Amino acid sequence: MLELLKKLVSIPAACGHEHEISKFMLEYMKDKVDECYIDGLGNVIVKKQGKNKGPVLMLSAHADEVGFIVKKIEESGLIRFEKLGGHDDRVILCQQVVVSTKNGPLTGIIGTISCHMMKYDDPNLVRKHSSLYIDIGAKDKAEAIEMGVSIGDPITWLNEVKPLGKNRIVGHGFDDKAGCALLAKAIEEIDFNNVCGTVYGVFSVQEEVGLRGAHTASNQIQPDIAIAIDTTACSDTPENMMDNTVGLGRGAGIKVMDFSLISSVSLRKKLQAVAEENNIEYQLEVFPGIGTDAGEMHKAGSGVPTGVISIPSRYAHSPNEVIDLGDYEYSKELLKAFILDMKEGDGYPFVN
Q1: pTM for the full predicted model
Q2: Do 204 and 317 sit in the same domain of this protein?
Q3: How far is C-alpha 252 from the geometric centre of its chain's CA atoms?
Q4: Of 37, 62, 119, 322, which residue is the least packed, with the fewest Cβ within 10 Å?
Q5: Same domain, 209 and 219
Q6: What is the DSSP letter of 90?
Q7: Looking at the structure, do residues 108 and 243 belong to the same domain, yes or no?
Q8: pLDDT 10s digits, 257-291
C-alpha cells in the first residue's frame, strides 16, 4: 500500500486535471476487477462481483488534490495563479511547486520577500494568494512562454513521500491519494468468493471543488450502501482551538458527522461493531469543518445509507501532510472486514 501511495503522490492531479492519475488507476485496476472504465467527468469506476447475493456497495476515494492554476504570465516572467480547492494563504509562501506544462513539468517557487525586507513591511500581514506569484526562473514573459507555460496549466506541490519518525510518513496529496491506495489494495486483497453482493470502487475527481465526481458516479451506480474513504484533520496538536478528539496513532476514524454528512447511524454502528469484532483500533470523528464524497453519495436516488472511514492526518492541504502507518493499516483492515461481513438483505434502513 505504501509503494502504491508513493506512486500516486508522484502523479500531479490538481482538481479538474486528474487525467494522468485516472489513466494510471485504470491501468492498475483493469486486471483486478470485473469491469473498469472512466466516465465522462474522469472518475475511474471499477466493479467486483461477489460470489453470493447481497447489496450493492459503493466505495469512493478522490484522486484529485488541492492545487493551483496559471492565471496570468507577467511581463517579468512571474506567474499569477488561482486556487483549485481549499488553501491557507499562511502556509503557501516560499513553497516549491510543479507547473505541468505542454513541455513537461517545471519547478517553481511561490515567492515572498526576504526577511531582510521585513522592517519595511507589516510583519503581521498575511498576503492573499491573488497578490502572490510563482517564480519559474524565467527572465521575462517570452521566456516563460518558450518554457511551455500557458494560461490554465495546473500547479501542484513538489515533494516526495518520506518517513517521519518510527511509523509515520510525510508528503503532499495524502488527501486523498492515501484513500485511493487503500481502496485499490483492499479490493486487490479480498477473496470475492467470500463476498455477498456487488462492490463498486470509485476513484473520483473534483472532490476538492465540490464533490463533483461523487455526484455523477453515485447517480450511475445507484448503490444500496455507500462508504467514502478519505483523510480527516487531527486535533491533537497544541493550538488553542484543538480539542484532541482525533489523533495520530489511535486507529482508523469512523465518522459520526461533518458539514457534508451526518452518517447513517445504523451503518456507523455496524462499522464500530466490525472493528471491535476484528480487534481493529478506531476512533469516532465529529468534525464539522470538513466534507467528503459521502456528502453527495448519501443523496443519490431516494437516499443511501452512507458512512466514512477516515484516515487521521495532520497539516491537511499543505505541502507536508502527515499520517501514521498504523492508522492507515487499521483503516484498510476495517474496510476489508466490512466488505467480508456483508450479507444478503443488508440495507441499514432509517427505521427498523
Answers
A1: 0.96
A2: yes
A3: 16
A4: 119
A5: yes
A6: G
A7: no
A8: 999 999 999 999 999 999 999 999 999 999 998 99
pLDDT at 185: 98
Q: Which of 207, 285, 296, 333 is catalytic?
A: 207
pLDDT of 72 over the 80 cut:
yes
Domain count, the chain: 2
Residue 110: predicted pLDDT: 97
Q: Is 159 exposed, middle or buried (0-12, 13-18, 19+ CB in 10 A)?
A: middle
pLDDT digits (tens, 9 = 90+) for 296-329: 999 999 999 999 999 999 999 999 999 999 999 9
Q: What is the pLDDT of residue 351?
A: 86
CA separation for the pair 59, 56 (Å, rounded): 10
Gap between the Cα atoms of 57 and 61, Å rounded = 14
- Specify the DSSP class assigned to residue 193: G
**Alpha-carbon Rg of the chain, whole angstroms?**
21
Q: Three cell numbers at 34?
A: 470485473
Residue 239 appears among annotated catalytic residues: no
Assess whether 44 and 146 both reside in one domain.
no
* Mean pLDDT across the chain: 96
Is residue 99 located within the same domain as residue 128? Answer: yes
**Do 21 and 87 belong together in one domain?**
no
Tell me if 78 is assigned to some domain: yes
> What CATH number did the domain enclosing 52 receive?
3.40.630.10
Longest alpha-carbon distance in the chain: 71
Per the CB < 8 A criterion, the answer to whether 284 and 232 are in contact is: no
Parent domain of 25: 2-65+172-341
Q: Is the pLDDT of residue 101 over 80?
A: yes
Instruction: Say what the alpha-carbon torsion angle 351, 259, 247, 284 is, to the nearest 10 degrees.
Output: -10
The reply to whether 29 and 149 lie within a common domain is no
